């Protein structure tokens, strides 16, 4: 990942500074409320792959995941045969971890079960924050939580439903990424922008 500092004078969350891909991700995606099930599924795959790794590593491999996981089409991923798992274990464009790959396939099946029960995965997950973004009004990164009562409840429920590699910390990151919580710092230019999204 190429190291760069933004050339504009906008104030940003410090975690994104240093890498161009991080800055772009922060400025265009992170914290924007997501209601599209395909995007939720994409983040669930990427976040479960991240366990033990940095988000920078995953962002670098995002396009590899897009190709390997059928453009994040959960209906196709749910039907991946064992022979394709073996192929994926040779694919250097993704994280080659059997448990994580098998978890993604399992999670696609569980994802569709949730859709059947709730009408959409979006309906299900937004229910954990009462249907609207929780705004934390953070003044510094040290105030940012790693989990919340909502992510604890979500992780417990998803585990009960059979999802894998999606604990409370990973799911809190999902909630941050998909705008269920707004954890942009209050002085970050995106704090107000994502409120309007």
UniProtKB/TrEMBL annotation:
Protein name: DNA-3-methyladenine glycosylase I
PANTHER family: DNA-3-METHYLADENINE GLYCOSYLASE 1 (PTHR30037), DNA-3-METHYLADENINE GLYCOSYLASE I (PTHR30037:SF4)
The organism's taxonomic lineage, starting at the top: Bacteria, Pseudomonadati, Bacteroidota, Cytophagia, Cytophagales
SUPFAM superfamilies recorded: DNA-glycosylase (SSF48150)
Stored Pfam families: Adenine_glyco (PF03352)
Signal sequence interval, chain numbering: none
């Amino acid at each position: 990942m190429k190291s760069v500092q933004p050339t504009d004078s906008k104030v940003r969350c410090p975690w994104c500074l240093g890498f161009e891909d991080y800055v772009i991700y922060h400025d265009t995606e992170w914290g924007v409320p997501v209601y599209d099930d395909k995007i939720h599924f994409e983040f669930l795959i990427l976040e479960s792959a991240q366990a033990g790794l940095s988000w920078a590593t995953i962002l670098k491999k995002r396009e590899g995941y897009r190709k390997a996981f059928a453009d994040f089409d959960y209906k196709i991923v749910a039907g991946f045969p064992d022979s394709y798992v073996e192929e994926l274990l040779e694919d250097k464009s993704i994280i080659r971890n059997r448990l994580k790959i098998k978890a993604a396939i399992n999670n696609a099946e569980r994802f569709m079960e949730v859709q059947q029960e709730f009408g959409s995965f979006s309906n299900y997950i937004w229910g954990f924050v009462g249907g609207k973004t929780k705004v934390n009004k953070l003044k510094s990164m040290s105030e940012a939580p790693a989990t919340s009562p909502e992510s604890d409840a979500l992780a417990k429920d998803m585990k009960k439903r059979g999802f894998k590699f999606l604990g409370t910390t990973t799911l809190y990151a999902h909630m941050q990424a998909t705008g269920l919580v707004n954890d942009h710092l209050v002085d970050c230019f995106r704090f107000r922008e994502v409120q309007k999204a």
